[in-house]
Design goal:
There is one protein chain. The protein is an alpha/beta fold and about 375 residues long. It has a single domain, classed as TIM Barrel, CATH 3.20.20. Strand 8, helix 10 and strand 9 form a beta-alpha-beta unit. It has 15 helices and 11 strands. It binds S-adenosyl-L-homocysteine and iron/sulfur cluster (SF4).
Length: about 375
């Protein structure tokens, strides 16, 4: 028999059934879950939000993930790669504004030329910021040598979402070929850890064919993998992708949003000292979606610093927000929003994952 909500949230270890129960909470029980997550956040990572200036480096991708708007086979996308100066300008902005960290994200390309290009970019980024800026990469699966070189050149965190921990579902949302194997995803996460990165992962919530049981298993996966950082958010359909065909069978957007919030809250209680992002996809469904995420356990926000003229070409999904706001407007808007959510901005602080620091014995 399932215990009542107070008994469950007073524990920090949940079993599958308890997670399922929490994912299904409504009304007063849901409110209690969110309140507990907020308390755990304050007590363990504090009410600070850390900025990671997001630079969408390139939409050139060698993969064909069935959910993603910039997949290789989408011929409607105008492909771009930022020039080094454009990246460095964005980095300078982040540095001058005391953001303390940036994320370099883009399509997956595996070639010696790409490895070198990113490596030299990393070296330049470190040079112009006196080695002070914290760099996160999110450039897909790469071989170990590449990951090592990028780490040595200055990157310290890496985001690679597992997308779903259900291997069958994974094979339904990706082509079944050697480039899109679940096993490789896991191997990549392991290599990232071996190379000494702070390792980030996450999932999409509300994929076609996904069940609430899958979501409970996703949380168990993130816990058992002992992940340092999490970025998760609702799946949002894109009309130029194969999964669009299943749009009528999806949970409605509010359900996907609500489940994403609950996933964040449950994760905060399960993994007290990790970093959790309030993702842009949350905001594309609810105008104050990121603030809501900050209220239930998230502590990272990624203001978009990609030069405006490229943003409309980096549409992973429909209704992506903030594609017409200059970095300054975006910063001002976020400042107000974060204050409103009862948090402060950790200007000038890296805000590294405490979980990583404990795991590796730094603290
Ligand atoms: N190419 C890299 C980084 C860019 S994609 C990679 O795949 O890791 C970053 C993330 O965007 C993906 O991990 C995926 O979870 C998310 N994403 C892609 N398409 C999406 C969609 N339709 N809805 C919501 N999130 C999506
Ligand atoms: Fe490429 Fe990443 Fe999109 Fe997959 S999710 S198609 S790897 S950009």
């Amino acid at each position: 028999m399932i215990k009542n909500i107070d008994t469950i949230i007073s524990k920090s270890e949940f079993n599958f059934k308890e997670i399922l129960y929490l994912l299904k909470t409504e009304g007063e029980e849901r409110r209690k879950l969110f309140q507990k997550a907020d308390e755990i956040k304050s007590a363990n990572v504090g009410n600070k939000v850390y900025f990671r200036g997001l630079i969408e480096y390139s939409n050139i991708c060698s993969k064909d993930c069935y959910y993603c708007g910039i997949r290789k086979s989408n011929k409607n996308v105008i492909r771009y790669r930022l020039a080094a100066e454009e990246v460095l300008d964005a980095v300078k902005y982040a540095y001058e504004q005391n953001f303390a960290s940036i994320v370099l994200q883009g399509g997956e390309v595996d070639s010696p030329k790409f490895t070198e290009e990113i490596e030299s970019l990393l070296v330049k980024i470190m040079q112009i910021t006196n080695g002070e800026i914290g760099i996160t990469l999110s450039l897909g699966e790469q071989d170990k040598e590449t990951l090592r070189r990028w780490k040595n050149a200055g990157a310290k965190r890496y985001l690679l979402r597992i997308e779903t921990s259900n291997t069958y579902l994974y094979s339904k949302i990706h082509p079944v070929d050697s480039k899109h194997l679940f096993e490789n995803r896991i191997k990549s996460l392991e290599m990232l850890r071996e190379c000494g990165y702070q390792v980030g992962s996450g999932v999409m919530v509300g994929l076609p064919f996904q069940t609430i049981e899958d979501l409970a298993n996703d949380l168990i996966f993130l816990r058992d993998f002992d992940i340092d950082m999490v970025g998760l958010g609702p799946y949002i359909e894109h009309d130029q992708t194969p999964l669009y065909e299943f749009r009528d069978s999806l949970w409605d957007k509010n359900t996907r949003f609500d489940l994403s919030l609950k996933m964040i809250a449950i994760l905060r209680i399960m993994m007290k000292d990790i970093n959790i992002a309030a993702t842009t996809a949350m905001q594309s469904i609810d105008k104050i979606g990121r603030e809501k995420a900050l209220k239930v356990g998230a502590n990272i926000i990624m203001p978009n610093l990609t030069p405006l003229k490229y943003r409309e070409n980096y549409l992973l999904y429909e209704d992506k927000p903030c594609i017409d706001e200059e970095a300054d407007e975006c910063k001002n808007c976020l400042e107000a929003r974060i204050k409103f959510s009862g948090n402060q901005i950790g200007y000038g602080e890296h805000g590294d994952s405490l979980h990583f620091k404990r795991r590796t014995g730094i603290i």
